[in-house]
Amino acid sequence: MPSMSRARFLKEYVLKVEKEFELDGETAEWAPSSSGGPLEWGQEQSSMDIVKSDKSAERQVSSTAMALSPDDKYLAIASNSAIRIYTVDKKEIRAELIGHQSNVSKVFFVEDISKAETPNDTQYMILSDSKIYSDKGDIIAWYLDSDGKSLTRTMPFAIEALADKSMSAISEDLTSHHELDTDALAEIRKGFVDTLVKSDMKNRLQSLTHWKGHFPSFGSKPLSADGERWLQVLNNESTQSGPRRPALLPTIVVRHFDNINSATYLHGHEDAIMWASFSPTNSELLATASWDGTFRIWSALDGRENLKITQGDVQDWSGDFSPDGRHVLFAGTDCVKIYSIDTGDQVLKLGRDGLKTEAWIRYLSWSPAGDAIALGNGMGVLLWRPFDKKYAKWDRVDEILKLGAEEPMHKGFVSFNGIRWLDRKGQLLAAADGENSFFVWDRERNLKWRFQRPMGKELELFSDDCVYDEKRKVLITLDGDWKLREWNLE
After folding, report:
1. For residue range 224-253, what is the model confidence (pLDDT) as tens digits?
2. Which residues form the WD repeats (predicted)?
3. Rounded to whole angstroms, how far apart are CA atoms 257 and 111?
């Protein structure tokens, strides 16, 4: 039976755009900075090679992650298990943050550190997480000064010197008595180096503020908007392979920035927690979606479950709050619904005659403007306007972006994975597809950009990460060929 690998897909697939930001009978025009059409890699405003010499954790593929500081001055870029702090303007490295035992998954700058317990001279605080195939992983707090330099420093092992010293003590005996050749000695030395690297990482971690666990996925917002709290998940392995004791079931942990030792535990979910976010207007409230077939709303104060919505024997995946905190959107298997926070009642359900939706809609984002929700729907993007008062008929949904594939086996690789509103006004929408091209729409001016991977270009990693520098009106993309690119959105 024929099969399709990602490498083969990237080599064969020709990007086919069937619809590109069409809404209410109008199609977006190419933005002036787009030169009348899509821009391919190589036509960006500027680019930079990402350091890729950092070793991946055992059994992990290479990975990257990125975050922009609240004042748009610094970029935190993770490359496998290391994080580097760059200046945005000149891309100078200011710090290397070493301590994660496995590849970094997510990086967040804390928006407001005024309430956080931090060392003296802290200007920026970062939270990053790492995890491997099971639930093993760590969350680390990093503290930077005004120059972007780390305030936590540890003495790294002199790994090469220690390996040489170890070999000098045993190499003569191994050569004369055991007749080992140069290749065999090199293999032994490599073993010393690998062991020292692991020990060095563990030693560095002990000097850092860290916690066991990791952040939830699928657009989760684990840091509260008011700078009071943040959340993580523990014991988040799926229970589908077998039951576990209640104490070992997936758990949400709410922590407090002003007291790193304080925590509230939210027990109740019986399978892996996919998504969790704080209300944008009330950090005492949060919502979760889990593979146990439930959506839940919780009190962050005492861990009490305020609302439980049971979907049955299905997997629930994602969600988002409305910007005013009055509603929450939940997305599960064959289900995308909006609920009232005050009453817990279902308000609306996504669904129209003739509208085909994927069984799992996992990538979505509610616009900061409050009037629209963007949802990745397989090879398309939907715009749902649930409370749009500009129209006589509320609750409108339209497919605004759609890709195609000539080869049926290509379809599973093309889906949109990254859906995000870029600006604080909620007018700039970015969508990343499975072959690492970015589609951007300014719905206020009805302009569009497309930043496209050249056909056949091989990728060394999967990335759909981007951030928006609102001051410079520049989109920064972290691409699968280990390059950081800047694109003009003026």
Report:
1. 999 999 999 999 999 988 889 999 999 999
2. 266-308
3. 12
3 state SS of 6: helix
pLDDT in tens, 9-47: 999 999 999 999 999 999 999 999 999 999 999 999 999
Give the pLDDT confidence of 279-288 residue by residue, as tens digits: 999 999 999 9
Complete DSSP assignment for 230-279: EEEEES-S-STTS---GGGS-EEEEEETTEEEEEEEE----S-EEEEEE-
Instruction: Return the structure tokens found at 50.
Output: 């990402």
Q: Do 281 and 324 meet the contact criterion of CB atoms below 8 Å apart?
A: yes
* pLDDT the model gives residue 133: 57
pTM of model > 0.85 = yes
* Alpha carbon distance 347, 212 (integer Å): 38
Domains and CATH numbers, the chain: 155-206 (no CATH), 219-362 (2.130.10.10)
Which residue reads 């535990």 in tokens?
265
SS3 content of the chain, % helix, strand, coil (to 5): 15, 40, 45
What phi and psi, each to the nearest 5 degrees, are found at residue 171? Answer: -65, -40
24 Cβ contact partners less than 8 Å away, ≥ 6 residues apart: 398
pLDDT in tens, 352-367: 777 888 889 999 999 9
User: Strand 364-366 relative to strand 373-377: parallel, antiparallel, unpaired?
Assistant: antiparallel
